[in-house]
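[Q] Does anyone have a clean C-alpha cell version of this?
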Amino acid sequence: MHVQVHYQNLENSPWMDEFITTRVSKLERYLGTAASIQVNLRMFKNRYVTSLAIHNRGHDYAFSSDGDNLYESFAAAVDKANRSLGEQKRKVKDRINRRYIPLKEVAA
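[A] Here you go.
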C-alpha cells in the first residue's frame, strides 16, 4: 500500500506523518497491496479539512471531513473510510456465501 500526504497552509511534522501512517495502515485489511491512498490536509477559513482518495483494484473512493482541529478532521475521514470499506467487504462476502452450498445438504 502506498500513502502520499499533502499539506496546504500547514506545517509538516514527523510526528504527524507517523500518526497518519499508523491510522491509515488500519485500512490495509480492506485494501490490496497495490492500493494507493492520497491524504490531503489543509486549513481553510480557520477549519481543518481532510480529504482521502483511495485507489484500489477496480474501485476508487473519496472521503472528506472537516473539524476544529487537524486530528479530529483526519480521524473522522478515516472512520468514514473504515465504515464504507467494511460495508463493501461485507457485501462481497455475502455474495460469495450465497453461492456456497454446505456439504451437509449435498450429502443428504
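[Q] Thanks! Anything notable?
[A] The CA atoms of residues 13 and 30 lie 28 Å apart.
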